[in-house]
Specification:
This is GNAT family N-acetyltransferase. With 147 residues, the protein is α+β, with helices and mostly antiparallel strands. The protein has five helices and nine strands; from the N terminus they run βααβββαβαβαβββ.
Length: 147
């Protein structure tokens, strides 16, 4: 298993990026300015895009695992890679996600705690309703983990 930084042609991973953020113009908002990593374990299994949000905050903008490999620890390994490689440069790692029974418990198991909410984020920023586990996502829930 190896983790590789992708510096060019990030859109080659668009299908994987769209698993975590299903509207391409939203991905375009952070893809060029963010750092992208892929986890390769006999093929790409997971990707992550992080951005510098200033004030000692590093944000996970997108993290996704190929569906048939979900639940095997790839996303957690990528998060630990980010933590270990950026703890000297940042104080906090944060992630924003929908209030979903799939994603919130995953981040909490990875050491994140709820920080704040942006009301109506998914309503205001997406051109169609976003559903996860049959529930429409409305607010963006931010979770943080100290580095």
């Amino acid at each position: 298993m190896k983790i590789i930084e992708v510096k060019e042609n990030k859109k080659q991973y668009l299908d994987l990026l769209l698993l975590a953020d299903e509207q391409e113009d939203m991905v375009d908002r952070y893809l060029d300015s963010g750092k992208m990593y892929v986890l390769d374990d006999n093929g790409v299994k997971c990707e992550c895009v992080i951005t510098d949000e200033k004030n000692d905050i590093l944000e996970i903008k997108n993290i996704a695992t190929v569906p048939e490999y979900q639940g095997k620890g790839y996303a957690r390994a990528l998060i630990e890679f980010i933590v270990n490689n950026y703890r000297e440069q940042y104080a906090i790692l944060q992630v924003g996600t929908g209030d979903s029974p799939l994603t919130i418990p995953f981040y909490e198991k990875c050491g994140f705690v709820r920080s704040h909410i942006i009301s109506n984020f998914f309503i205001d920023n997406y051109d169609h309703p976003i559903y996860e586990s049959g529930v429409q996502l409305v607010d963006m829930v931010y979770l943080q983990r100290p580095l």
